[in-house]
Amino acid sequence: SGNACETDQMEGEVEVVTPCPTESHGLQGTIKGHDLFGYVGIEAVLDQMRRKTMKAGFEFNIMVVGQSGLGKSTLVNTLFKSKVSRKSCSPNYEEKISKTVKLQSVSHVIEEKGVKMKLTVIDTPGFGDQINNENCWEPIVSYVNEQYERYLKEELYVNRKPRIPDTRVHCCVYFLPATGHWLRPIDVEFMKRLGKIVSIVPIIAKADTLTMEERQEFKQRIRQDLKANGIRVYPQTEYDEDPEDRILNDKIRENIPFAVVGTDKEHQVNGNKVLGRKTKWGIIEVENVAHCEFTNLRDLLIRSHLQDLKDVTHNIHYETFRVRRLNESNLTVHGLALSCFPMENGTHGTNGTSDRSESESHL
To answer: Where is it localised (predicted)?
Structure first.
């Protein structure tokens, strides 16, 4: 068959691929299953990767955006089953409306079964709380871009750190008030702008204020609004890697936005302790899928898609930023002119830096 590779499917699981010339004029073939003379031990590399990851740990940076009173701090605490929000771990925290959008972050090292995760929660007090909310998303856009800029600068150093600190925002959870109507103009404008530079997961906050019928209608309207306005929310169809991914992600897309309830209080239900909100009429169980979609959100952010959120941030959003910045600055990888590398959102005290406070703890 000339230069074409020939593939024969044999009985069982063994696939024999006839070697074909590669671009480097060498031969490349595939050896599977029973073709091996004996056990090689290739799969042991997974254990090696696991050990290295457990030793080094990993970073996850989550941003929560929404107006005051939507339960952002409570939901973050519920997600990670610990007091990780800025509100929870600030001894002198004052509940007052900020006059401007100020980005503040708090970091914790969470350890579970030998795996360490440095979690950073970025809060946006003041967003959507003013009489005039025009351009209130600009400090948030600046912050996200500033983290990309910081990472890019580290990458361009001649002597790079073995491991570049990753402060890039891996996920932005956007809180929608449970109005039961449509997306507000501020919601549309924010998600339009931020959806281009960060992975956005919209959720309906305090969903227990809606009946099940109202909830479904509201979710449907929001999906229509997102589509009509060309808003890109995570997970995007074009990033599905294979049919298996697509099936999993289609189920998620059908349920977005998740209608969630958050609480850090436990109650007794049928002899078991459950996280829930107690009312005169009963207990709304946070982790009961019949009551709300909190578990869907938790599974997406932590149990099934955490690494994918990081990969999309690095390979899509950061890469887009990197290409644009290098083109703007007329830099090449070989001619590192860092002295004339303008820091748009970095060293000159933007909202992302001057208004941001950071604290760390170990859980």
So the answer is: Cytoplasm, Cytoskeleton
Q: In the 8-state DSSP scheme, what is residue 313?
A: I
- pLDDT > 70: what percent of the chain? 80
How confident is the model over 42-61, as pLDDT tens digits? 889 988 988 888 888 899 99
Angle, to 10 degrees, between the axis of helix 138-156 and the axis of helix 319-329? 70
3-state secondary structure of 338: helix
Nearest to residue 78, comparing CAs of 234, 260, 200, 257? Answer: 260
Cα four-point dihedral sign 226, 232, 237, 240: negative
Residues near 363 by Cβ (< 8 Å), separated by ≥ 6? 82, 84, 108, 109, 110, 111
**How far is the CA of 356 from the CAs of 94, 104, 129, in angstroms?**
16, 4, 18
pLDDT(215) > 90: yes
The average confidence (pLDDT) of the chain is 82
This prediction has a pTM of 0.80
Q: How many residues are present in the chain?
A: 363
Q: Which pair of tokens denotes residue 48? A: 């090696």
